[in-house]
Amino acid sequence: MADIADKKPNVNAKVKKAKGGGGGGGKKKEVKKETGLGLIKKKDENFGEWYSEVVVHGEMIEYYDISGCYILRPWTMAIWEIMQAFFDAEIKKMKIKNCYFPLFVSPAVLEKEKDHIEGFAPEVAWVTKSGKSELEVPIAIRPTSETVMYPYYSKWIRGHRDLPLKLNQWCNVVRWEFSNPTPFIRSREFLWQEGHTAFATKEEADKEVLEILELYRRIYEEFLAIPVVKGKKSENEKFAGGLYTTSVEAFVPNTGRGVQGATSHCLGQNFAKMFDITFENEKGEKAMIWQNSWAYSTRTIGVMVMVHGDDKGLVLPPKVASVQAIVIPVPFKDADTQAIFDACLKTVEELTEAGLRVEADLRDNYSPGWKYSHWELKGVPLRIEIGPKDLEKKQVRLVRRDNSSKVDIPMVDLVKEVKETLDKIQQNLFDVAKQKRDASIQVAKTWDEFTAALGEKKLILAPWCDEQAVEEDVKARTKGEIGAAKSLCSPFDQPELPEGTLCFASGKPAKKWTYWGRSY
Predict the structure, then answer these.
(1) Cβ-based neighbours of 498, under 8 Å, separated by 6 or more
(2) What is the pTM of this model?
(3) In 151-298, where do the E strands start and end?
(4) In 3D, which of 504, 454, 462, 505 has the Cα closest to residue 482?
């Protein structure tokens, strides 16, 4: 989007110095003072450049030499793996099995479902050469896998005993975005899971759509500490070729943009008709299956950075942080450095045995102040400081990343206090994000109220007549340099709609409340 450009931050620019700190315990090794730490841009002043800086300096990604493609560094992959472990275990409880289908799609198969391919056509990347030879038939790289998988569902499903068929794959997909690629949010290749399930009845399909959507809500709210709205997409915004789409919608108050967090689609029987996926039911009659597809991607991580990050860098929720607490020795000139280091290692060992992800930074060529800034930039939720006075008093100092509060705790209470503090950080991140999101919601009942709220970067809740032509008109009337407004979702939790309420855009009788805004 216009507020975030795919522009590399200048990693060699002179940036803010880290805070000063103690020496290296009497060692002669030079302690570094000048650093490449800190962010030049501020979140409230230049969000796009701040975001680009924070994902690079926070060691989440590195820019690649093909625009729109990014290297996902270990700090990012650890977050992805934690979410993956949760989601994979939950879908296995639902008897969904993992599989893997090829990356390549033949044109004949890809183009079989007309609405579907029209929705994806501009984003499809094609392989046209092998070495120096032109391929006789170009091969598409999957933008999603409905058309890759469903010819084989037709082969595997014969009778009612073959149902339900419930498969998921963890993979990459390619969508050749041309406008404003953004790390995590809009990239040409990204990681995701995609589930594809087949049922004998619509009731079973409808039930699963909502079960999966609830798992997506849990990923955002319980793991990433981001409030989301569960709802249904409009006909214009639903998945191309599907029956209906449900989603969890997040919001970034700094930019006034919604983010489609994850989607769970009921495909109905449209793909079953295209790919002839039929079965013999219990009465011996030929019947058509009902299908769902659902996915969430590494976009989740970008939303987390946007919502929680600050001018010091990343702020990671403890549940997904690769390192939940960093232990830093704070020796003075004549201190017993080895004793302090030993206490740090003992602290790491004790907390690790308690199931926490904890590391110590014992590098002696960096000052404690440099280390504070380094780990703040990387978003580690909790800092544990141990100096000579802490050893004397048999205590450690805890410093929270989310609000910078400090507290000294007895070493005997270490595990209990650290666990409680991490829980408090997780909850506080969610509470603060929800408060900011809720403060951004504006009810608009007229077109003038709608345009005023849009100009103030609000998440707009408006009564709507639920007509496609009206939504197209809203897009046309709000089109500008920073993008048009569109419907985000109609929340399942509907406020009361008094009789006689009119649509904000058309003046016709309103049928529902819908969230509107600009979006990524």
Answers:
(1) none
(2) 0.92
(3) 165-174, 189-199, 229-232, 244-252, 257-268, 278-280, 286-288, 290-297
(4) 454
